Amino acid sequence: MELSIGEMLMIALAIVVLFGPDKLPEIARGLGEGVRKMRGAVDDIKTEIMKEADNPLSEIKNEIEKVKQSAQDFNPLAEKKNDAFPKDDTPKIDHSEDDSHEGPVSR
């Protein structure tokens, strides 16, 4: 809401006529104090709203970062490398030197 110069002069003239020139400084101080309190209250409300609005976003961002980190840390191939070829401690038999081994039978 913007007031033109003419509107502000009409308001000032109405205040002078209604309250007199002696009370004008007192009224101006009261108006200034009220405006300062209103600005402070609006700033406090803005700060609270921004805190509340920012808080869920930062929590969501933290959760996304945790998921990204766990996805990077997860390596299914590392687990499979250990399990794919279990270590066999039995001695290997060389069948080429063993005459009792007949090998695969084909029919």
Automatic annotation (TrEMBL):
One of its GO terms (biological process) is protein transport by the Tat complex. InterPro entries: TatA/B/E (IPR003369), TatA/E (IPR006312). Pfam families: TatA_B_E. Residues 78-95 have a biased composition (Basic and acidic residues). GO terms for molecular function: protein transmembrane transporter activity. Coiled coil: none annotated. Residues 64-107 are annotated as: Disordered. GO terms for cellular component: TAT protein transport complex. It is a single-pass membrane protein. Part of the twin-arginine translocation (Tat) system that transports large folded proteins containing a characteristic twin-arginine motif in their signal peptide across membranes. TatA could form the protein-conducting channel of the Tat system. Forms a complex with TatC. Belongs to the TatA/E family. This is Sec-independent protein translocase protein TatA.
